[in-house]
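Worked example 2:
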Amino acid sequence: MRTKDFSYKIKLISRNTVNGPSMDLILFAFMTVLITVIVGSYFVLNLLRISNLDFRLLSIAAFSIILGKVLDNFSTFKAGKQMDADFYEYGLVRYYHEENLFMSLRPTGREIMKHVAVEFFIYLILMFIYPPILIAVGVASLLAWYNNNCAIKEVVFAKLLGKKIKRMIEEGKNSAEINKYLDKMLKKLIYKKYKRPKKFFKV
């Protein structure tokens, strides 16, 4: 019996403990970031007394893509740091991985830097072809950064719970006892998350 045998329940508990982003929250964050980038860039350019429309558009595109990509790639690097020996031992590798199609499932720092270099040249070309694309990519990158941070919190909690399960195995607990412990924890979390109004409990 190994800790990874309980990895699915560990993942479920972690996901319910660390509340990830809902679609409403993602949409709200998207609109907030988009408005902040555009309005913020507009005021900065006004302060600098820059009135040329093309230059304004290029500046907003450059600002949004740099901010978005720096934060996104930094969070990807942080996520990669969590994929240590415990991550593999507890079986979390089955459920958490990099979703970028142009990177491996578990990218190293060197791979991320190579990816950033390739992205830089692509976005530099796109900046002079159609700058609004970069504004959209920049905002999407900020949302990816937010999603990465939620996933990192989940992994950190899952590793702590995995350590607890490993300790229980070393203490001689059997599979039934461990499953009972995990099921009890999961039920408490689900009840707390979807708790009925008090009137439902009145006779």
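The first helix runs from residue 7 to 17. The chain is about 75% helix and 0% strand.
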